[in-house]
């Protein structure tokens, strides 16, 4: 997320003339386990206070699985905690989460059946599938890469994703979730996979970028990152 979002907003700025700044605070995570993810969630409010000091216009909570590990619908509570932390610090800002962004984007696109790639171990991959299905979206097929070390997840080669996506059973699906993880690089492969498979391709990062733009009132105009961020797919989000 810390590399892909600045690149996406650079492309948006190039297309629209808007100017964006990017600020981040990290909650430590070494191994992607249920226990470490729970500890990470407990630090979200402190991180929100840190970034709100910059008087930002929107805050995104970027760990998808940390939120999803807390149970169905947990993104609503996480977004509320982050927004309240920013407000209490004297700099209120709307908050989105990658977990909430992904399920809301898929719902808004009318996707009822999806396939998905994750970097997670089997237990966490099942947890993410269950969370998405809890939002009324069937996960028809999923490939988990079973990488436990968080730094190694960040070093995965996005050029491998097209080959992985070809292995998914895509019969009757509405969309491809190419990376259900903000740590796993995927941006370089979003457009090639979408072009090859003829299906909308979203990731945790592109869904989050889309919701940030929505919160800012800016129409997406980003090239090379799929139809969602090109502005040619218009999700119909419910209130």
UniProtKB/TrEMBL annotation:
Query: Which Pfam families does UniProt cross-reference here?
Result: Amdase (PF17645)
Enumerate the Gene3D superfamilies for this protein: 3.40.50.12500
Please indicate which superkingdom the organism of origin belongs to.
Bacteria
> Mind telling me what this protein is named?
Asp/Glu racemase
* Species of provenance: Sinomonas terrae
């Amino acid at each position: 997320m810390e590399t892909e979002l600045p690149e996406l907003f650079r492309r948006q700025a190039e297309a629209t003339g808007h100017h964006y700044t990017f600020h981040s605070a990290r909650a430590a995570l070494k191994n992607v386990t249920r226990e470490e993810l729970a500890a990470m969630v407990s630090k979200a409010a402190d991180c929100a206070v840190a970034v709100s000091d910059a008087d930002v216009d929107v805050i995104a909570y970027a760990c998808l699985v940390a939120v999803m590990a807390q149970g169905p619908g947990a993104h609503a509570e996480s977004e509320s905690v982050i927004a309240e932390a920013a407000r209490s610090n004297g700099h209120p800002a709307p908050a989105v989460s990658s977990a909430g962004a992904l399920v809301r984007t898929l719902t808004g696109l009318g996707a009822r059946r999806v396939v998905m790639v994750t970097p997670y171990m089997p237990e966490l991959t099942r947890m993410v599938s269950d969370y998405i299905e809890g939002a009324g979206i069937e996960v028809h097929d999923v490939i988990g890469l079973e990488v436990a070390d968080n730094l190694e997840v960040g070093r995965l080669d996005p050029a491998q994703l097209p080959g992985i996506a070809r292995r998914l059973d895509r019969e009757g699906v509405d969309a491809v979730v190419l990376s259900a993880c903000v740590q796993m690089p995927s941006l370089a492969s979003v457009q090639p996979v979408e072009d090859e498979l003829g299906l909308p391709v979203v990731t945790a990062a592109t869904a989050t970028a889309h919701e940030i733009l929505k919160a800012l009132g800016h129409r997406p105009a980003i090239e090379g990152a799929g139809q969602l961020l090109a502005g040619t797919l218009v999700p119909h989000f419910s209130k």
